[in-house]
Amino acid sequence: MVVEDLNVLVERARALAAAGGRRILGIAGPPGGGKSTVARTVVAELGDDARLVPMDGFHLAQAELVRLGRRDRMGAPDTFDAGGYANLLRRLKGEEEVVYAPEFRREIEEPIAGAIAVPRHVPLIVTEGNYLLLWPFIPPLLDESWYVETDEELRLQRLIQRHIEYGKTPEYARAWVMRSDQRNAEIIATTASRADVLVRL
């Protein structure tokens, strides 16, 4: 299914929230492709019925990336604690009164533990990230999955600008995007067909 209307996406999410019990909506896509914007919009529209829990909170810490020799590949699949992320999704399906999730802070490029509180009464968890459809143990934990794609030139421009806004020079930002982010985007693109909904905005 292809959806090109944000209002349709909001109504799909609203129906998930009203389906009974707790549901998890996963939103995947390449860096700069618009998945975070879609996720934030859905959560804002649903208000108290939804909570945003991004995958990015499971970035490995900078010191660990350096120790592993992966700092120059930050953002690649093996620079995340994928198992920890899966365990969080399982906990979110449980009966705990409050589950605390980590959050990635771009201004310091570090994950912060316990930054997002998810009370048990929230019916819909919206989780977004690059690799939701790549790691085989994640899709079974999702009640619905979306893959967001956009114009490729626009995506690259957004991505470069994001890096500039967080302190990189324009030259370094472009080099990083074309060397690291683009390689990851090519991997992520192979997972689009696994989504329940293909989002084009």
Distance between the termini: 14 Å
CATH architecture identity: 3-Layer(aba) Sandwich
Structural class: alpha/beta
* CATH class categorisation: Alpha Beta
Q: What's the CATH superfamily, by name?
A: P-loop containing nucleotide triphosphate hydrolases
Radius of gyration: 16 Å
- What sequence of helices (H) and strands (E) makes up the elements? EHEHEHHEEEEHHE
| Oligomeric state | single chain
The main pleated sheet reads as: 6 strands, parallel
* Weakly predicted, low-confidence segments: none
Total individual domains: 1
Helical amount: 25-40%
The DSSP helix count reads 6
CATH topology: Rossmann fold
Mean pLDDT level: 93
Protein model, in words:
The chain is built from six helices and eight strands; from the N terminus they run βαβαβααββββααβ. The chain has a single domain (2-200), classed as P-loop containing nucleotide triphosphate hydrolases (Rossmann fold, 3-Layer(aba) Sandwich). The protein is globular and about 50 Å long. The two termini are 14 Å apart. It is of the alpha/beta class and 201 residues long. The strands form two sheets. Strands 1-8-7-2-6-3 form a six-stranded parallel sheet, covered by helices on one side. Strands 4-5 form a two-stranded antiparallel sheet.
Q: Could you name the key traits of this structure?
A:
6 helices; two-stranded antiparallel sheet; 8 strands; single chain; alpha/beta; 6-stranded parallel sheet; 201 residues; Rossmann fold
